Each structure stands twice: as C-alpha cells, then as structure tokens.
Amino acid sequence: MKEELKVVGHNAVRLDILEKVTGAAEYTDDLAFGPNLLHMAVLSSPHAHAKILSIDTSEAEKLPGVHAVLTGKDFPEKFGLYLKDKSIFAVDRVRQVGEQVAGVVASTYEIARNACKRIKVEYEVLPEIHDPYDSIKEDAILIHPDLGNYEIEPWLDAQPGTNIAHLRKIRKGDVEKGFEEADVIVEGEYHIPHVAHTCIETHISVSKFSMDGRLTMWNSTQSPHTQRNIMAHSLGIPHKNVRVIAPPIGGGFGGKAGISMEVMAAAGAKACPGHPVKLRWTREEEFYNSSQRTGLRNKVKMGFKKNGKLVAIKHQMFWDVGASAEYGSNVVNATGFSATGPYYIPNVYIDSYACYTNNPICSAYRGFGYSEFSFGIESTMDRAAKKMGFDPVELRKINAIKEGEGVAYDVPMNPNGLIECIDKVAKEIEWGKEEKSDDPNKIIAKGFASVWKAPAMPANESSSAFIKFSEDGSINVLVSGMDLGQGFLTAMAKIAAEVLGLTLDKVRVELPDTDRNPYEWQTVASHVTWSCGNAVKRAAIDAKNKILDIVQRAHFIDKSQLYLEDNGVKCTTQESFFIPYSDFVITGIQTEHNTWIGGPILGSGMFMPEYTNAMVNPETGLGGHPMVHYTVGAGAVKIEIDKETGRIKVLKMAEAFDLGKAINPDLAKDQIVGGFVQGMGTALWEECIFDEKGKMLNDGFTDYKIPTILDVPRDMNPILVEVPQPDGPYGARGHSEHTMIPVMPAVANAVANGLGVRITDVPVTAEKIVMRMGKPEFMEEKK
Amino acid sequence: MNHTVKFNLNGSPVEVQVKSNEKLLDVLRDKLGVTSPKFGCGVGECGACTVLIDGLSVRSCITFAVEVEGKNVVSLEGLQADGPTKIQKAFIKNNAFQCGFCAPGFVMSATELIEKNPSPTEEEIRHALAGNLCRCTGYKNIVDAMNEVSQENKEEGR
Ligand code: FES
Ligand code: FES
After folding, report:
1. Bridge partners of residue A350, in order along the sequence
2. A31-126+200-251+256-289 — its CATH code?
3. What's the confidence (pLDDT) of residue A1?
4. By percentage, how much of chain A surpasses pLDDT 90?
C-alpha cells in the first residue's frame, strides 16, 4: 500500500510569513543592545595592490569617544574556510580596493567613521592584476607570495610560486581520440564578469566578549556553526565559550556563507570587553567587502558525432577569485568536477584554475559557479545544434545524462528527470512555434538551456536535529539550518509533522543558536532540505519510537498495531482507541496502580552521507566520489528585442527542476521564480564595473541595476518534476540555486535565434546587441 | 546643532532630540525603537525604509528628522491597531515574501497606493511598487496578492 502523505507535498502558508509581514521579525539590526552598545567602522584601502609601509593611528586614538583602534599587526593570524589566506585587517599589503586596513570602535558610528579618516597609512603601490589571463602569466607579480605556507584542505591543490590557488583537473577517457572520432567540433571562448549578491540587508554582526571570557555573536549569517568553529580556532577559546545566534536574515544567496566581516566585529569586541560592538556594512562596503560572484574566462570545445551524440569535451576555466580564495577555491573545485553540463560525455578534459587577482574577493553565489560555466556549455550546445541541423532541444535530449551513466569523475549518475524537465519546458514555452510582434521594429525569439548542479561540500558535511514535545502535544524542532527565505523552517516542520502525525500548527521551528540547537555544517549548496531533512526525519522517528514504546507498555497493545495520526496515537485493531499527545508526552501515562509510565518525549537524529570521498587523484580527478547527487532542470525564455535600440524585454519564462519530492510545492515554485529573476538581472544588466585601478564604478543600486517589479516577465511558469532521490527525505533533493543557472544562456540563445548575433560575454546588453548586429565576427554560423 | 522635534508617530505624540543632519530612519530605529523601517542602502535607492508622512510614502533614510516637525508619521507598526490589514492578509495568504527584509517597505508603499486608488490595475500596482527592491521573490506573489486586494475592493464597491 502506498502511504499517503498528509503534510509533506501539500501547500501551506510559510511558518515565518506572519512575523515578516507584520514587522515582528527582528533582524540583527533590530535587536536592542542598550546604552552599552559600541559601533565600529573600518578604513578601506584605496589601492588594488600595495605594500603597507606604515600606519599611524595616534590621531584617531585621541578623538573623544574612541574606545579602540585596530590594525593588522594586532591580528597576524590568517583565517578561512578551505584555504587560510585572509587576514582580519590587512597585514603588510593590501590586495584589493576596499580591503580593510584598520577598524575603530567608538561610542557612535559617526565618531568611529571620523576616527578612521584620521588614520594615516603610507602605501607603496605595486603592479596590479585584474584579469585571470594576466594572473597566470609566468612573469606575473605574486599576489600571495606565501601561498605555500597557508593552511589548506587536503583536497585542494594550490600551486605555490604562482597565482593559482587551486587547480582541479578531470581526465576521463581519451579526449584527443574523442575529438578524432567527432564529426563536428564547436569551439568558443566566453566571459562572465563579477556580479554582486545585493541582499537587501547588508552584512551585520554584533559581537560581545563578556567579562567571563565568552564570545557571543549575533550575525546575519548562513553558517552559525561554521562561524563558531572558525572563531573558536582563531581566538583559541573553547567552542562552548563561543555562541553564535542567527536572527532572521535579509537575504543570503551565498554571500553570507562562511565568515567574512564578522571576524572584524569580534576583533572589535575583544578590544572592548563587556560592550556589544556593532559592525554594519554600508551598501558600498557590501559591494566591495562581503564577496562577489567569481568572474570567469573559459574555453569550451565540444565534439559530436553525426547522430548528435557528444563524444568529447575540453573545458578550460580560468576563474577570477579575486584577492582571496578562502571560499572561492571550492567554487573552482566543484565546477571542475561538473563542467560538462548535464550530458553524458565519454571523454572529458577539464582544467579549473583558481586565479588570484586584485579584484574584490569572490566566493559562494547562488549557483556556485554553475551559472558561469553553463553559459559557455549551453551556448555551445545551441551553436552545435545549428551547425549540425538539429533542433537545440532535441540535441539536449539526445545527450541528457541518464541514471547510471558516468558523470565527469566517472561515478554513476543518480536517478533524474532531465528529459521530463526538457519536455515540459519546451511545451510550456511552445518551442518551435514562431511568434511575431505587432511592432515591425521588434522581433520575438525563444532560447533554451538545460542545466545541473550538485551540492559542493566537504565529504563529511553533516546535520543534526532535536525534537521536544510540550504539554499540549506541540513540538519544537531544533535545527541549525537557516531560513534564507527558501522555506527551510516550513520544510523541516512538515517532515517532523508527517512522521509524528501532527498538524502543522503544532510545530515550531526556530532559527539557530549554537548554544541550544544541534550542529549543522552550513545552509549552502541547496542541500539542507536533503541533509537536515534527513536528520529531522530521524529525530522524529526516534521520538515516535519512544511514544510507541510508552503506549505499548501502558496499554499492553503491541507496537505494530499502533500508529500516529491527528496529534495522537491510534490503533489499527481498535477503532475507538485514541490517546492525544497532550495526555502523556510530558506527564506520562497513569497505570491502574496509579504509577506512571513514560516521561518527556525527545527525539534526536543525525545525518552524514557516508559514501562521499573527496580524495581524488589530482591528475585525473578520478577515484573518489566528491558529490552526493545532481539536481537537473531546464529553462527557456521568450523575449522581445527592439532591433533599433537592442533593448530586450523578457515576455515569458518557463523552468522545470527535478527536486525529487517537493516538500512545499508552492514555496518550491517560488524558488524558481525568484531564482529566474535574479538570473535575468545577470543576463541583461548586472555587472560590477571597475576602472583600470580596480575601483568599482557602480557600487550602488542606481548604477548597479537589479530587476524591479516592472522588469520581470508577466508570464512566469515554474514547473516541478519529481523523480525521487533515494537517500533524500521523502525523496527530496535541493533546487533553489539551480533556478538561476539556465537564464544567461537561454537569453543569449534567444538573441542568437532572433538576430543571429552570438553574444559570448554577459550581460547581454542592448549596447552589445546594437554594436554587434550584422558584424560578421559576431554572427552565428549556420548549417 | 541639536533640535527638539515634535511629531505624531503611529498616532501618538512624540518629542525627540535630534541633530540637524540626523535622518528620520536612524531616529525611528535608534531613538524611538521603531524597527520595521529597514536600512537597505541609506541613499534612497531601495525602499526598505519607507514610511508614510501625512499619507505619502517617503524614504526615511533620506529624510531629515527635523523635516517631520508637526507631521503624522506612520510606520508598519502603526497600521495594525486592529490586526493585520487587508493588504497584509493578502501578502500572508500568497507567501508574498521570502527573507522578508523588504516586506515592511512594500506594505507601506502598497498602503499608500490602495488609499489613493482602491482597485488599481496590475500595471498601476507595478508602477506604485517600482521603488521597492526585492532580491528574493521575483515579485510574482506580491503582484498576485495586490491583484487580489484590488479585486476585493472592486467587489466591495470601493
Ligand atoms: S534604505 Fe532608504 S531607500 Fe534604501
Ligand atoms: S523577500 Fe527578501 S528582499 Fe524581498
């Protein structure tokens, strides 16, 4: 008998919507810390690359109201998640414009800022590098001369004496032979600029060292436990004495993963024990000094047989990770394993280089590098289809990777519904149906892309959960995943409710506090529904077993006849039997002798994938199992292009993702819509623009345009496909980041389909279209 | 220079000491404990700090506190004396927000719109909310919710 799900898979109002719409949600900056609160400001480098000759803080220290002035010499130790190449404040040299050189803690923010202006720094300017191609030149100046001495994860491959922080190689099959066998080869070179997360809430931390030596941090973060771990290590204090509290977060998108400016707030707090110290980024600092999305220059070469089958790919990726690779090195690593796209290819050659530059630091951004490399792959797929006379959708279906086929690192692909996603998107966008605008100056075109992405995580990432009952039969689920807006809390509530036969109104799930809530690695990689969902399910099963045990002992009914439903326990053999949880989950059950059986019901659960292995052969990328699974999907756009101005209006979008099982179908669709629109910004306009000295020219919303309510398509069609993930809770796997990935190539493919112009460098701006239209070097080859 | 500013905040008179260059957003948040208006940019670009001054939506981050002398200032806190408003209920029903940081600003701008134009068309809704940035949602559920409000008002003859 197929068990019918009562909560999971049904639509629901999200758990946190009431507090958000009423203004009751208290984000970090909304918390009251009393008159003892101090404020921090930082002094940033005006240079992209320079030696620090001297720092004179004496004038700043004299300013009334200043409590502490901090510089790099106070904190010589390096920190970082995967590669410790970052300092709290610059030590000896600065590596990007905006890098923090000093910090001031003062009674008001104004005083702290004024004090920063009085700090005198003498620099000796060094040659600077802003392009990854320059970064890898043999005579390039070294941005991190000490690379060989940094602490690094064993699965990263830094190249000391160069600017390459990590190189991931894949050598599967024989790529040269593959190209010899190919009937058609398509090659191209692509460029993706830096873009910014632009969470509407900027980064913020309030940190406090109390007199007993404890550090408490209130951070807008995706990673409370990871931050605790890094703080405990870098300060040399026990984990139990570090507490990270994560209030509601005003957007993350990867930008608040790991740790960044929070270490500065902690440093400020250390200098002023007893005072909470607040550091909040300005919008400008947010652009420079949180992190940006990795820039990419990549060369894609793909070989096909006449029947459309891919036989070989050579993909070289030169990632601009900016001034630090502490987190970005993992973007480079993850994409190195996956830069084939969702296709089965027998011969694979990938080089993925993490290139230091003197640009702002890049790290995780929704999609984790897959948006960037997929642009080249999906552009190539369309170009190949045209060259060979295939329909682009058909060519993708011919090559769509199936369950059991080897991925780039030669581990069998998980069950997936890629073809179903492609078909459903093609149908929704009416692929193949030509459409005309009423306006003779405008043409209507469609573009398609299919994508995949795996969570990028250390092999032993893990999650855990506690469940505790209260007198009225309601539960608290304690987890440390973050609700970034994706609906994590609601998903966890539903999983617990499903196992325990509870209605959703009986479940409360709170945001993390590392003192109270159990361990979670981080809320990144679109993996918490899967990973933490498994932990919650196990915790619920643990609680369920305790409940059944108590009822069996008190009522002499065999466990196998008991089940949980309607907020209580029922029996398959006695229809009238029902004990509501409120009768016993705290008090226990009274026996005929007036003794009691039971006690407060608790459940705990943990989860770790036990089949992953990051230790591949560095020369081939083979021999391990670095990724847990891939989520696949497809997306398409219908756009209107003004031939005179080059302006693009996206009229309609459709995207389908195979998320295994939608725990919250409506919220899952919202992820598709939100991710699409974020992707649309990067496809059409978004780009961090720098002058030749590395200063950003558009560090505000006026010049860095993100989509508004007027810009979005009026016709948006999110589609869910459900081919279960064998080790996912109820079959679920993640899809929230993936939803951005198809947009850049789908738009560029639509432009090529409509005008014949092939744009290989995003964003696909009106200016590029107008300037390049009709110029032979930009026109697409056709069969 | 310091000034004493007197105004009406969410229906009650308040009196507060401010500097000439102090922004209304900071005074509301740090001196009066009204935290629904958010800091998103501080320069009038995102709409997260939106409040109503004499019924008109303004960005409190670029409004000097001294400018509100004698005026009626309403933030999200002041709209809900009788519980969530019709607009808020529609936002709740439609799961209109994700991270929620932009939500107070949207509610304020939407409130101004519905006061002036109880049953706006979809394009009128979009134009009225174009100054509020949201990075999470793609705006779809926000528009759906507002369309519902508009429809309801129309049916009620407003
Ligand atoms: S904070 Fe006022 S408009 Fe952004
Ligand atoms: S819901 Fe996150 S910014 Fe709007």
Report:
1. A170, A315
2. 3.90.1170.50
3. 39
4. 98
B99 has a chain A CB within 8 A of its CB: yes
CA distance linking residue B64 with residue B66, whole number of Å: 5
Q: What is the spatial distance between Cα A499 and Cα A762, in angstroms, rounded to a whole number?
A: 46
- A416: tokens are 């997936």
Instruction: Fold for A462-607, please state it.
Output: Aldehyde Oxidoreductase; domain 4 (3.30.365)
Q: What are the φ and ψ backbone dihedral angles of A345, each rounded to 5 degrees? A: -135, 120
Give the start-end residues of each E strand in A173-214.
Answer: 184-192, 204-209
Domain ranges, ordered by start, for chain A: 31-126+200-251+256-289, 292-457+614-778, 462-607
Looking at the complex, does the CB of residue B32 fall below 8 Å from at least one CB of chain A? no
**Distance (Å) from the C-alpha of residue A14 to the closest C-alpha of chain B?**
6
Res B78: pLDDT: 97
Decide if A635 contacts A742 (C-beta within 8 A).
Answer: yes
CB of B98 sitting under 6 A from ligand 2:
yes
Q: What angle do CA A692, A696, A697 make, to 5 degrees?
A: 95
**Average pLDDT score over chain A:** 97
Give the pLDDT confidence score for residue A782 in this predicted structure: 59
Q: What architecture does CATH give domain A292-457+614-778? A: 2-Layer Sandwich (3.30)
Handedness of CA A425, A430, A434, A438 (dihedral sign): negative
Interface of B with A in 103-132 (CB under 8 A): 103-104, 107, 122, 126-127, 129-132
Q: Which atom, in ligand 1's list, is nearest to the CA of A701?
A: 4
Q: Is A50 helix (H, G, I), strand (E, B) or coil?
A: strand
**Chain position carrying tokens 């391990």:** A624
Q: Is the shortest distance between the CB of B39 and ligand 1 below 6 Å? A: yes
Q: Fold identical between A31-126+200-251+256-289 and A462-607?
A: no
**pLDDT of A459-513, one tens digit each?**
999 999 999 999 999 999 999 999 999 999 999 999 999 999 999 999 999 999 9
How many CB atoms neighbour CB A512 within 10 A?
A: 26
Domains and CATH numbers, chain B: 2-77 (3.10.20.30), 86-155 (1.10.150.120)
Is B36 an interface residue toward A (CB < 8 Å)? yes
Low-confidence ranges of chain B (pLDDT < 50): none
pLDDT at A2: 52
Q: Is the ipTM of this complex over 0.90?
A: yes
Cis peptide before A763 (omega within 30 of 0): yes
Burial A197-232 (b: 16+ CB within 10 A, else e): bbbbbbbbbbbbbeeeeebbbbbbbbbbbbbbbbbb
Q: Is B100 in the pocket of ligand 2 (CB under 6 A)?
A: yes
Query: Can you give the pLDDT at residue A780?
Result: 87
With an 8 Å Cβ cutoff, is B74 touching chain A? Answer: no
For atom 3 of ligand 1, the residue with the nearest CA is: B44
Confidence of residue A699 (pLDDT cuts 50, 70, 90): very high
- The pTM of this model reads 0.98
Q: Are A712 and B126 in contact (CB under 8 A)?
A: no
Beta strands in A331-370 (DSSP E): 347-356, 362-363
Structure-token pair, residue A714: 């009026």
Which two three-digit tokens encode residue B74? 């309403």
- Decide: helix, strand or coil at residue A643: coil
Give yes or no for residue A308 having a pLDDT over 60: yes
A424 Cβ contact list (under 8 Å, min separation 6): A634, A654, A656, A719, A721
Determine the atom of ligand 2 nearest the C-alpha atom of A251: 2
